[in-house]
Amino acid sequence: VLDSQYGMYVWPCAVVLAQYLWAHRRSLPGKRVLEIGAGVSLPGVVAARCGAQVLLSDSEELPRCLQSCRSSCLMNHLPHVPVLGLTWGRVSPELLSLAPIDIILGSDVFFDPKDFEDILTTIYFLLEKNPHAQFWTTYQVRSADWSIEALLYKWKLKSIHVPLHSFGADKEHLASSSLPGRHTIEMMIISLPQSDGT
Predict the structure, then answer these.
(1) DSSP conformation class of 115
(2) Hey, what's the torsion of the CAs at 22, 50, 110, 157, to 10 degrees?
(3) Residue 197, Cβ neighbours under 10 Å: how many?
(4) Are 33 and 55 in contact (CB under 8 A)?
(5) Strands (E), the chain
(6) Is 45 exposed, middle or buried (CB count within 10 Å of its CB: 0-12, 13-18, 19+)?
(7) Residue 13 and residue 29: Cα distance in Å, rounded?
(8) Of the candidate ranges 2-16, 17-31, 38-52, 136-150, the one whose mean pLDDT is the lowest
(9) Mean pLDDT across 115-134
(10) Cα gap 57→98, rounded to integer Å
(11) Burial of 59: CB neighbours in 10 Å, binned 0-12, 13-18, 19+
(12) What is the pLDDT of residues 141-178, one digit of tens each?
């Protein structure tokens, strides 16, 4: 999807999440999708190419990340996909005025434990506003010292673990990282407890 000449690196988590979207492409047309921490935006681009109404976002404090979102859209012939500055943990006018959402995407947003609480503040806010929405996220297990599950329990959020083999993402070239320390990639679908997943 992306050309290395643009100096963009696609992390393995984004490839795995994009693979999940591709595996579920028939359910995407017409769905309203928000990608958070989008950066290069591979999952969002795939969702848009599959017919979803996509909104890409990254931190308003990171103009280069927002520019990466725009560049990815242009390279993939998606000039009309909106790009929005949303900073995790901050209830901004942009966050408050978001249109309804069905699916939130986040690949490798659980990178730095100091951001986890801010991310979940934002996700919880979006799920409360869109009670039937789901947060589809992939992350690399970088340390045995932190657990997303404990935080989800604290926020009273439901999580379903999605095995990578169930959507063909357990292939060596997809889910394994050539980066030092080769990390395990996990996928989860997070929702409000009362959501019936429809």
Answers:
(1) H
(2) -90
(3) 9
(4) yes
(5) 32-35, 53-58, 83-85, 103-107, 134-141, 158-161, 184-191
(6) buried
(7) 23
(8) 2-16
(9) 95
(10) 11
(11) middle
(12) 877 777 788 889 999 999 999 998 898 887 655 545 45
3-state secondary structure of 143: coil
Contact 72, 140 (CB under 8 A): no
What six digits make up the tokens of 69? Answer: 């979102």
Output the pLDDT for position 171. Answer: 66
Amino acid present at 129: K
Task: For domain 19-191, give the fold.
Answer: Rossmann fold (3.40.50)
Amino acid at 88: W
pLDDT in tens, 44-94: 999 999 999 999 999 988 888 899 899 999 999 998 999 999 999 998 998
Cβ–Cβ < 8 Å for 175, 16: yes
**Beta carbons of 15 and 22 less than 8 angstroms apart:** no
- Read off the pTM: 0.88
Total residues found in the chain within this entry:
198
Tell me the three state secondary structure of residue 94.
Answer: helix
- Among 6, 10, 5, smallest CA distance to 177 is for 10
DSSP 164: G
Residue pair 53/33 in contact (Cβ under 8 Å)? The answer is yes
Contact 186, 161 (CB under 8 A): yes
